[in-house]
Amino acid sequence: MAFFAMRLALASFLLLPILAKAFEPLNTDDAGTVLKGSNQIEQYFFKTATHGEGAASMDIITPGEEYFGGGSAQAFPLSYTRGIDDNMEVSMGATYFAKPQGNYSPISNKVVSLKWRFSEDTDGHWGLAIKPSITLAGTPQQQVHGLNLALPSYSLNLISSHYWDIVEVHLNALYMNSPYNTNYQIGGSLTPNRTNIVFFSAAPVWRVSQTLRLALDVGITTNPPSTEQYLSNYALVAAIISVKEDLDIGLSYMLSAANIGLVISNSGVNASRSELGFTWRF
């Protein structure tokens, strides 16, 4: 039976990514933090798929969401963030997988993160932040089916944000140590995984109007299967609609492939991720 994987380097977790990201529906995080004493909830839905001849026998990653399984996935990542200081926030998140499902818990990718903006311009033109995260271990059966890894992992993301009147640019440089239980398969595959993951990305965001922002998010990351090329690329387009001052709706579409040429041309073997959800601040 042939398997293909859509894998996070994050993340994220992506997830996260990443799964406690402050700038959904992008993969790239920003240096901003939730106001002290305030809260933020992000609830999203994503769907992954693979495309191109031979996709069933080639591993393709989709950075930003941790899924290593064979076949497509449909899931609901949820994160909660609390501002604990003027320049610091703590967040936690998890993902409910509607597809695939089996003899394991559908709730996985449990992530705890702390983001500290340690330097910034007094006029608010730029900011630097670091974000350490811990992803709790999944069960062996979750690892077998690709929902999570059966050992805990940790990551550290260095974030740089620059702000102008109508555009802002965010840069990420992330390292993730992602071990797994070698007694079990990963997403149905016996191929060993790389456990040291790096991720570099850039995301310009344009403010089209008071209620609409458009974003382009591009990046390069370690491809987990050790028998394949070391790096993979992705490109993502997104829109963020401010329905109210404290409520945003976000949607994005991402393509990931072995090189940026395949991503731009949407040819060859590639993977896609479609995402839709909301961010509520209170």
- Overall radius of gyration: 18 Å
In N-to-C order, the SSE pattern is EEEEEHEEEEEEHE
Query: Could you please say which CATH topology applies here?
Result: Porin
**Fourth CATH level, the homologous superfamily:** monomeric porin ompg
* Biggest beta sheet summary: 12 strands, antiparallel, barrel
Q: If helices are DSSP runs of H or I spanning 4 or more residues, what is the number of helices?
A: 2
Helix content: under 10%
Q: What is the CATH architecture annotation?
A: Beta Barrel
Describe the structure.
The protein has 282 residues and is mostly beta strands. It has a single domain (39-281), classed as monomeric porin ompg (Porin, Beta Barrel). It contains two helices and twelve strands. It has helices spanning 140-145, 260-265; strands spanning 39-51, 73-85, 88-99, 107-120, 126-135, 153-163, 167-177, 196-207, 212-222, 231-244, 247-257, 270-281. The chain has a twelve-stranded antiparallel barrel. Strand 3 and strand 4 (107-120) form a beta hairpin. The longest helix is centred in the middle third of the chain and has 6 residues, at 140-145. Mean pLDDT is 86; it is low at 1-22.
Primary descriptors:
51% strand; Porin; 12 strands; 282 residues; 4% helix; 2 helices; 12-stranded antiparallel barrel; globular; disordered N terminus; mainly beta
Write a brief structural summary.
With 282 residues, the protein is mainly beta.
Give the arrangement of secondary structure elements.
Blueprint (H helix, E strand, L loop, with lengths): L38 E13 L21 E13 L2 E12 L7 E14 L5 E10 L4 H6 L7 E11 L3 E11 L18 E12 L4 E11 L8 E14 L2 E11 L2 H6 L4 E12 L1
Antiparallel strand pairs: 1-2, 1-12, 2-3, 3-4, 4-5, 5-6, 6-7, 7-8, 8-9, 9-10, 10-11, 11-12
